[in-house]
Every structure is written in C-alpha cells, then in structure tokens.
Design brief:
The chain is mainly β and 348 residues long. It is built from 1 helix and 25 strands. The longest helix is centred in the C-terminal third of the chain and has 9 residues. The chain is globular and about 45 Å long.
Length: 348
C-alpha cells in the first residue's frame, strides 16, 4: 500500500491461458490491471510501490519458472511493462526498492530454493544485474533494505543445516549466523539494531520467530499452543519496535516436507491494552438560612456526594509474546516484565 487510496496486490494466473493477477486499490475498489506482453500462466510473488507512478513486481513464469525467465514488471502510472531480469530461468520471490535508482530482488535458480540456489539482483536505475551471493547459503525468500548500505535477506536451510541470513554493508553481502534448521520466509527491520524474521523451525516442528538486537539473531521462545504454532509463519511486519504482526496460512509436514493446508493464523507483538478504571468523588455543600421574627436565626448545612467513573487510557503497557491471549498469564512481576520489554526471551 502506497497510501489509503493507492495500493497493489499480485498473485497467480487463474489458469495456463491467463496472465498473472495484478489488482489496484483506488480507494473504493480493487481493479484488475492486466499486464501486456507477460508470459501467460505465471505467478507474481511480491509488489513494491515507490509512488503513484512507479511500482515494481516480480515472480516466476509458467512451469514454476523452470523454462522461462522470471518476470520483472514496472508500473509507470499507466501500464505495467516488462523489464529484463537478465536471468534465463528461476524464481524471484521478493523485492525492495529504495528509490527509482536503487532496488533489490532475491530468489532462487530453481523452485524449492535449496542450497546453492540463491539469486540476488540489483537495480541501478537503468538495468537489473546479478550480484554475487555469499557462499554456502540456500535460496532467498525475502529482502528488506534500511538504506543503500544496510540491508538483510533471508531464505531456506543451507547445506550445513543453518538458516540463510545475509547482510548487505554497502559493499558486499555477507552471511550471518542463523539458527539451525531455520526455514525463514520474511524479514522486517525497524532499525539497524532492531529487526525480526519468521518462518519454521524444522528441528522442533514449531513456528519460528527470530529477533535481531544489533549483534545477533536470537530465537524467541514460543509458548506451547498446539496445533496453531506448528504453522509456518509466512510474513512479518513491524509498525514500531513494540508493535508488529505476523501471519500464516500453512502448516508444515515434517515427515513429507512441504506446505499443507492449515488454518489462518495471526500473531501480534506489542503492549497489552488493559484499561484502568478509577472512581472520583466530589462534595457539594449547601447552606440555607431561615429567619423567623422574634426567634433566633439557624443555619442548616447538608452535604451530598456524587461519584463518577473515568476510564484512564492505558500507559505504555507491557510487551509480551505475540499471541495476545497469553499476555495476561505473563504478568508475574514488574521486574521480569521490564526485562522482556527490551530483550526477547531466548530458547534454552
């Protein structure tokens, strides 16, 4: 979404004789925008809008990209036009544009994104060109750029059993240590010292959440909430350091690796909202004077009290584990919660 009146969604072709799906949100409805000159039967995996007159999308062609160049399309405000990727075949899974002259796309040489299949492309304002991927990693599934000199990409499990996490320092991509068995699908950075990646832990067969603290990527403990937490988390988005969302629509079949049908799952990371209620009292004093001729003057005082209930907006709150329904059970002590605010729980 570029703004509330301008957004894009992309996906698979309805059938082998149809183009990939591109929908545009105009503030009132989603409208189909059929791209001309694009291979039929393909799939678009990601879209990124820079402005109302510039957006990009990537994906793979028919036959799962095995025999066709992966599509890269650019929106100029009027039509979507193809831009050469420079690849004879393969899959582009994600892209992130910093500007009209600086952008990145990642993917795999083959479907499955196994070890040694990583693809990295860079846009310089004129053309897309291949960039050497670090040795030892597997195919890449997501990329997030903080700046021209600071970016991250994540992906599948490498030959050594570690997940694939790489960092761009402005000169080259370098591999960064990742959890063993980590199948990573999405990454979102809040800053150079705060970021998250999600996916699936193929060792424990649980959903995987990993946090970057500026020095290391640490696995965040997941509560035992079967069967929902056996879902593979497919996307993460952070609104701020203490407010983020993750989603999943798949389960993972550890005995027969691959995606399976599963119920949708939303998880939230952030402060627990617990309204506080206080009661205030006000006192009203009324004095009356009665004069009777030939007698003394007396004064009677009566006091009445009224109460009002005011709901005070919650304060910063306590960041807990992403599933909000569990947060109430984590309120064991102020000291422990203060630590949790700044440091994720590490899996033992």
């Amino acid at each position: 979404m570029f703004n509330t009146n301008d957004g894009w969604a992309v996906g698979s072709a309805a059938d082998a004789a149809s183009p990939p799906v591109i929908l545009h949100w105009n503030g009132a409805a989603w409208v189909v925008k059929t791209p001309p000159g694009v291979a039929l039967g393909g799939t678009l995996m990601d879209v990124h809008a820079l402005s109302p007159t510039e957006a990009w999308t990537v994906g793979f062609g028919p036959a799962f990209g095995a025999a066709s160049s992966p599509p890269i399309l650019k929106w100029d405000g009027t039509i979507w036009a193809s831009v050469p990727s420079g690849l004879a075949s393969g899959v582009l899974t994600d892209l992130h544009m910093l500007s009209s002259t600086d952008g990145w796309a990642v993917g795999c040489t083959v479907i499955g994104c196994g070890p040694g299949t990583a693809v990295i492309l860079r846009w310089n304002g004129l053309a897309w060109s291949s960039v050497t991927a670090p040795a030892g990693i597997a195919g890449l599934l997501d990329v997030f750029m903080l700046s021209p000199t600071d970016g991250w990409a994540v992906g599948s499990i490498a030959a050594d059993g570690q997940g694939s996490i790489i960092h761009w320092d402005g000169v080259q991509w370098r591999r960064v240590p990742a959890p063993t068995g980590a199948f990573l699908t999405s990454v979102h950075m809040v800053s150079a010292t705060e970021g998250w990646t999600v996916g699936f832990d193929t060792v424990s067969d649980l959903s995987l959440i990993v946090h970057w603290n500026g020095l290391t990527w640490d696995v965040v403990s997941t509560p035992p909430v079967p069967p929902t937490m056996t879902n593979i988390l497919t996307s993460v988005f952070m609104v701020s350091a203490l407010d983020g969302w993750g989603v999943s629509g798949f389960t993972f079949a550890p005995k027969a690796p691959g995606f399976g049908a599963g119920s949708g799952l939303f998880i939230h990371y952030g402060p627990e909202v617990i309204p506080e209620t206080t009661t205030s009292f006000s006192t009203l004093t009324v004095t009356t004077t009665t004069s009777i001729t030939g007698t003394t003057t007396s004064a009677a005082t009566s006091t009445t009290s009224s109460s009002t209930t005011t709901t005070i907006p919650p304060g910063p709150g306590i960041p807990g584990y992403p599933i909000e329904s569990i947060l109430a059970g984590l309120m064991a002590g102020v000291a422990v919660l203060a630590v949790l605010r700044h440091r994720p729980i590490r899996r033992g």
